[in-house]
Amino acid sequence: MTVTAASSTEKFDVILIAPNVSEQMGGEAIKALQIYRELEKQGVSAHQITHERVRLEMAKSFPEMKVSYIAETMTERLLYRGKIFEQLLNYLFFCSAARHARTLLKENPGALIHFTSPVSPVLPYPSIGGATVVIGPINGNIHYPPGFRHREKLSYKVRRWLHPSLQYLNGILFPGKRKANALLVAGGRRTYESLRMAGCSEKQFVASIDSGVLDRLYDQPRITHEGKNLRFFHNGRLVEHKGTDLIIKSLLKTKNRIELDIIGRGPELGQLKSLTKSLSLEDRVQFIEWVADHSKLAEMLRQYRAFVFPSLAEANGIVVQEAMVQGLPVIACNWGGPSLLVTPETGILIDPVSEEFVIEQLASSMDRLAENGSLAESMSIQARERAYNHGYLWSGVIRDWRDVYTKVTGETSRKS
């Protein structure tokens, strides 16, 4: 293990551990960066341990960050080329990061250690004896609904079948999660069940939001609705489990001439374009592959009536949170992450009974919202209020986590 540090002399309250911290790598890497920045914003001094691969970006864009970098070995560099070794590489990184965290604790004995990503309940974590440890937000154990199991690839099926046995072994061989002081759980019942399979206890569980939304989205005027609006959008990486094809097919069943904009790229883009053409819907479906100035995306979304997101295996749904914060009703499947975010007052949830049922319900839901501006406006108001009151903003997420830090640190002090 080779460790280099941009800053190691300053005192800090929290040691954050994440293999990727970046604005450019997407997903969990962005989330890890936002966690660090929001903690600092709220006056909690943090030190980040991350991978050497993000050093150049961090040094250029965030030179003020207190950070240590874990360099990879030649073996790890070779394994990084294969997706199959991802979990092993994460565990090797965690082991190196844990060793460095122990060194940092000698200079900051009261600091808390927080593993912030990845978020999978099956990922093994090392145990750090004598330290106060928080892991999460943990989210996962998400599979296709029974009515859509015919869409599952073999890898999905095998993972679902083996999950209980692997979690049992995980709990025996890798006690990191079992020994953590707190586990932030964001995936609802499915994630609690997975963690119990790994031997984790109820006293460790703390319900949490998976991710936050930048407060600047809430600072902008709410998107308002009135009259008739036939424009809807779908946003996100175009992969198979997002169910984008279901929305396109549903346009054949709408009473109104609904228009759909699909924002994003991904491996399914070509097939979705072909599907649109085969159904003669080119004049109603527009593919917007890239928004060059992402800061203008929020303003662009003001033209739509609602966000349509029938994902079939979505652990969280940050795009759902972003839509709600801005005041957009959401049409989604009553499954996975969106089902934990959307309520009947803020959108429409469709039970994923079968493809035919979901397609029919997508069509009727879009017709209903397109025609009823008053309903859309009511959902808009309620969505924005729920996003704020239930801590969908990063400021709220971190405030809640700080309460957890205080609680577990106090418990550790009383035991010592």
H and E order: EEHEHEHHEEHHEHEHEHEHEHEHEHEHHH
Helix-strand category? alpha/beta
Report the portion of residues in β strands: 5-15%
**CATH topology name of the largest domain:** Rossmann fold
What's the tally of helices? Answer: 16
List the uncertain runs.
none
Q: What fraction, in percent, of the residue positions are helical?
A: 40-55%
> First CA to last CA: what distance?
31 Å
Describe the protein in words.
With 416 residues, the protein is an alpha/beta fold. It has two domains: 233 residues, Glycogen Phosphorylase B (Rossmann fold); 175 residues, Glycogen Phosphorylase B (Rossmann fold, 3-Layer(aba) Sandwich), CATH 3.40.50. 43% of the residues lie in helices and 15% in strands. The chain contains 16 helices and 14 strands. The strands form two sheets. It has an eight-stranded mixed sheet, with helices on both faces. A six-stranded parallel sheet has the order 11-10-9-12-13-14, sandwiched between helices. The chain is globular, with a radius of gyration of 22 Å.
